[in-house]
Design brief:
The protein is an alpha+beta fold. It folds into three domains: 64 residues, no CATH class; 250 residues, Alpha-Beta Complex (Cathepsin B, Chain A); 43 residues, no CATH class. The chain is built from nine helices and 15 strands. Strands 2, 3, 4, 6, 7, 8, 9 and 10 form an eight-stranded mixed sheet that branches. It is globular, with a radius of gyration of 23 Å.
Length: 387
Amino acid sequence: MTFTRLFNKKYSNEEEAALRLNIFKTNVDYITSVNSAQQSYQASKHFSENTQQTALSSLFLSQLAHTDLLPQLGLNEFADQTWEEFSSTHLGLNAGEDGSFRSSANTGFRHADVTPANSINWVEAGAVTPVKNQAFCGSCWAFSTTGSVEGANFLATGDLVSLSEQQLVDCDTKKDQGCGGGLMDYAFDYIIKNGGLDTEEDYSYWSVGGFCNKLREERTVVSIDGYEDVPVNDEVALAKAVSKQPVSVAICASEAMQFYSSGVIAAKGSCIGLNHGVLAAGYDVDESGKPYWLVKNSWGGTWGMQGYMKLEKDSSVKEGACGIAMAASYPVKSSPNPKHVPEVCGYFGWSECEYGSKCSCNFDLLGIFCLQWGCQTSTGISAPQMA
């Protein structure tokens, strides 16, 4: 099956198709060269260890200096995009007003005395929702935020509720900029001030910024009490936090990460620019004994390891692999969630459905325009609502 058929790619004209084909070929060459260099480095490392000839190993290290030393890159749905195109729409972490990536007013760290578990996987524990897709919108910060809030809510209530990134994109605009980027700490501030977030189901994602739906914004389903920042450049502190809950983290995403397929991304030097918000969902060691962080991304389930990646843990680089220890934070929650409010129903939100029922169209015109809305329950449709 061809790339275009596999990923249902459609281009506007022949010129666009030709451009994308050339980009695809360039990316194939890049993926092949990085994978080949990685294999050669592993072979030279083994050779060097047995013969004490380090020159060859050093040569391959220098060849890989521009990459993240990924064990494996692969073709995915992003293979027809340049890194410049991809990074302009699939990242979105912005520094705060003071130039940092954390709240200057937040100094507590309640997990300081925690002894981290040897390993933890919050996905297997049921605290992480399925992988989502930010698509062509720089809203990674919103997905990182909802991921940690979803985890905190699960640990506090036992319920895993998928929360609305679109609400953050549309409504959290005082300091964050929707698809133009944002910061997780600022999003936590918004959630606290607003009294909570609506669900993904009610305020669904559509990958563009728009007007804030005030009625849905008021439908606060999951709340938090506060949030805390993990001490900077401290992987031990990060492990303490992640051993207790999923944690929002910022990383430096590179060109190689666009095509990440599998394996552990090694720490290689200082992170020069945090640009992507993701979720630290656990940590463990791989088959070779290499410690890693399990990270949930927001580029869909076809990217990476079913939407996840592994970053080297406990490295000699103080910032951690890809800067994962530079700007980590997590929500705090112990209080109950707000009382459920009715779901907004209809085009203009003039009517509502009580919790436990869902707004749906009773009668439509040619499958395009709904003439009458109703509240769908498990037993049927209730009384009609205004459009």
